[in-house]
Amino acid sequence: MPQLNPNPWFFIMIISWFTYSMIIQPKLTAFITMNPPSSKAPTTPSTTPWDWPWT
């Protein structure tokens, strides 16, 4: 069965992962985020209950 022959596909997989790991991934992780996370504590908004006129 030809699909069980790993000869060409294993080489393609190794080259693909090598390309991703050594070339593409460092370029993607080098980007500076435009909106960095802040160190401020999150604030909870103070809400007032709505007074319904029919209750």
TrEMBL record:
The keyword Transmembrane helix applies. The chain crosses the membrane at residues 6-24. It is found in: Mitochondrion membrane. GO terms for cellular component: mitochondrial membrane; proton-transporting ATP synthase complex. GO terms for molecular function: proton transmembrane transporter activity. GO terms for biological process: proton motive force-driven ATP synthesis. It is a single-pass membrane protein. Keywords: ATP synthesis, CF(0), Hydrogen ion transport, Ion transport, Membrane, Mitochondrion, Transmembrane, Transmembrane helix, Transport. Pfam families: ATP-synt_8. Its main location: mitochondrion. InterPro entries: ATP8_metazoa, ATPase_protein_8. Belongs to the ATPase protein 8 family. This is ATP synthase complex subunit 8. It comes from Pteruthius melanotis. The lineage of its organism: Eukaryota, Metazoa, Chordata, Craniata, Vertebrata. The gene is ATP8.
